[in-house]
Amino acid sequence: MIEKIFPPGAPAPKGPYSPAVRAGDFLFLAGQVAPEPGEIRSETRQVLSNMKLVLEGAGASLADVAKVGVYLLDGADFAAMNEVYTEFFGELKPARTTIVCSFMSKIRIEVDCVAY
User: Fold this and answer.
1) Burial class (CB within 10 angstroms; exposed 0-12, middle 13-18, buried 19+) of 39
2) Which helix (H) or strand (E) holds 26?
3) Is 76 exposed, middle or buried (0-12, 13-18, 19+ CB in 10 A)?
4) Torsion sign across C-alpha atoms 14, 103, 41, 48
5) What is the pLDDT along the chain (116 residues), one digit of tens a residue?
6) Contacting residues for 94 by C-beta, under 8 A, at least 6 apart
7) Strands ordered across the beta sheet of 95-100
8) What is the Cα–Cα distance from 4 to 80, expressed in whole angstroms?
9) Which of 13, 31, 70, 71 gives a 20 to 30 Å CA spacing to 88?
10) From CA 63, how far away is CA 20, in angstroms rounded?
């Protein structure tokens, strides 16, 4: 059974998707973006804070994250993004993929994850 999750307090999706979906013991989070464009550190902090809110609303935490996908508009933002990412994940170190995406014209970063 697949359960669609809309945690209270989490940002509402701006499209036809669920913020999170539970499938068995897995929790899949949709990509999170910052509500307002800004400097990459502040956008990354907002995105990861939103991700944490969605996880907590679904009964999970950052410690349950097994895989993270990071999508950047500009590869030059990698070091600054990674600095903030480390503040959130530190020694947890889930598997991660980072991709530079040219189609992202209004946002600098999007992050999704899979938790178990």
Assistant:
1) exposed
2) strand 26-33
3) exposed
4) positive
5) 999 999 988 888 888 999 999 999 999 999 999 888 889 999 999 999 999 999 999 999 999 999 999 999 999 999 999 999 999 999 999 999 999 998 777 789 999 999 99
6) 65, 66, 67, 68, 113
7) 2-5, 20-23, 26-33, 109-115, 65-72, 95-100
8) 33
9) 13
10) 17
Q: What is the DSSP pairing of strand 2-5 with strand 20-23?
A: antiparallel
Give residue 43's identity as a one-letter amino acid code. E
Contact indicator for 24, 115 with CB cutoff of 8 Å: no
40's enclosing H/E stretch is helix 40-57
- What's the token pair of residue 11? 């940002």
Cα atoms in the 13 Å half-sphere on the side-chain side of 63: 1
In this prediction, residue 75 carries a pLDDT of: 95
